[in-house]
Every structure is written in structure tokens, then in C-alpha cells.
Design a protein that fits this description.
With about 240 residues, this protein is mostly helical. Helix content is about 70%, strand content about 0%.
Length: about 240
């Protein structure tokens, strides 16, 4: 009887893994759209399958979330961990990213409003086209996502889905997610739309460009600036 039960569990897990292989591939190609050509989709899929296996071992159906939602977070996290372990981003790109976030934070504190591309470029004392180049370089040379703010992509539009019996244990996370959601709602309209299409609708940069009738490069710039603006506004949570 014990052997029969073990066999059944093994078959159930194998079926679960096979059923969600397509989810691993979908997430891998979604991430690949914002990574340089040196990153191979097969490497992402391999790490994602490890995440899927971990999800199948740790999933607890009594918590309320569906397996696909739970697995999606684990799969994406495993892929991002693998990418970050082999960080191929030049140090200058990290430096430029911090520089842009700091400039946006300073300007918005001074002016009390959203700042434009031109104003940030002027603050950095560089031509506008060079600023746009930095945004593209940061966007393609590094994962610029909600994860960098300390939250999964799956939580970008929902901050209250907590199923914990201890009402105080996750209070900081709930408040953080609420602050992030409110912060996203204050972004300039086009930046907010790009984030919504990218994270909620899971469109890639080319598809978003078709919706907005702009180039894929311009979408990359808008996305990058939106994330830098969020980082600047949420900086107190990172300290």
C-alpha cells in the first residue's frame, strides 16, 4: 500500500511537471525579449524547470493560490537567480542606472512633479540622445523589473492577496505592495501604460510599440525610465 501511494504521488508530480512545461517556456521567452543575444533561451528553460520542480515539492494547496501562480513565481525567480549569478552587465551600466535614479529623485524633490527626459538629461549634463542611449543600455543590459524593488512581477497589480493566519507577520510586505501600487498609479500616463502592458498583459516591447505606434527602442526607453522613476520614489524602502 505504501509503495502504491508513493507510485501515485510520483505519477501525479510527473504529470504536473509535464503539464506546466509550457509555462516555463512562456516565461523564458518573455524574459528573453529584454535580454541580450548572449543569453540562451535553453539556459533559461533549464533553470526554470528547476524552479518548477521546487514549486511542485513546496506547493501547499491550502494557502489559496493556484499552482500555476505559485509555480510562475518560482520559475521566474529561478531564471533571474541564474542570470544574476552570471552577471554579464558592465559596471558602467550599473553606475549609469544609479545615476539616472538619483537624478530623477533630486529633480522631483526640487520641482514637486514628474520630470521629463529633457530635464533629466540636462541634470546629468548630457545630450538627450545620450540619455536615451543610457536608458536603452540599462534596459537591455540588466533585468529592470519589479523584482529589483523587492516584489515579484505577479504582485504588481495586487497587494492584498495574503493568506497568513498571523495578521502582523506580513504587515510590512502588505504596506510595501500598497505603496508600490499607489506609486505606479502616479506615474506619467504613458509610463504607467507601458508597465501595465508589459507586466499585466505580458506583451513584449515590439508588441507594445505597435499598440503605442512608436519604435521598440522608444518603448525600451519609456520602460527603463518608468522603472528608474519607481526606484527613485521607492528608495526609502531599499535602505
Amino acid at each position: 500500500m505504501v509503495k502504491a501511494n508513493a507510485y501515485s504521488v510520483h505519477n501525479d508530480k510527473s504529470a504536473l511537471l509535464e503539464q506546466h512545461t509550457v509555462l516555463v517556456k512562456r516565461i523564458a521567452y518573455h524574459l528573453l525579449a529584454r535580454l541580450p543575444a548572449s543569453v540562451l533561451v535553453d539556459d533559461l528553460i533549464q533553470s526554470g524547470m528547476i524552479g518548477l520542480l521546487e514549486a511542485s515539492n513546496n506547493f501547499d494547496s491550502t494557502k489559496g493560490a493556484s499552482f500555476e501562480t505559485f509555480a510562475g513565481i518560482r520559475i521566474r525567480g529561478a531564471m533571474l537567480d541564474e542570470i544574476r549569478r552570471g552577471d554579464w552587465t558592465p559596471r558602467s551600466v550599473h553606475k549609469n542606472s544609479r545615476m539616472v535614479s538619483d537624478a530623477i529623485k533630486t529633480l522631483e524633490a526640487e520641482l514637486g512633479r514628474d520630470v521629463t527626459d529633457t530635464e533629466v538629461a540636462d541634470k546629468l549634463d548630457i545630450p538627450l540622445n545620450e540619455y536615451h542611449h543610457i536608458l536603452n543600455e540599462v534596459s537591455t543590459g540588466k533585468i529592470i523589473g519589479i523584482e529589483d524593488l523587492g516584489i515579484s512581477e505577479d504582485s504588481i497589480s495586487s497587494y492584498a492577496d495574503t493568506n497568513n493566519n498571523d495578521p502582523y507577520q506580513n504587515i510590512e510586505e502588505i504596506v510595501f505592495k500598497k505603496s508600490l501600487t499607489e506609486c505606479i498609479s502616479t506615474l506619467p500616463e504613458r509610463e504607467g501604460l507601458v508597465l501595465s502592458l508589459y507586466y499585466d498583459e505580458e506583451l513584449n516591447l515590439r508588441e507594445i510599440g505597435e499598440v503605442l505606434d512608436v519604435s521598440e527602442s522608444r518603448v525600451s526607453q519609456i520602460h527603463s525610465q518608468a522603472m528608474h522613476r519607481l526606484k527613485a520614489r521607492m528608495q526609502s524602502w531599499k535602505s
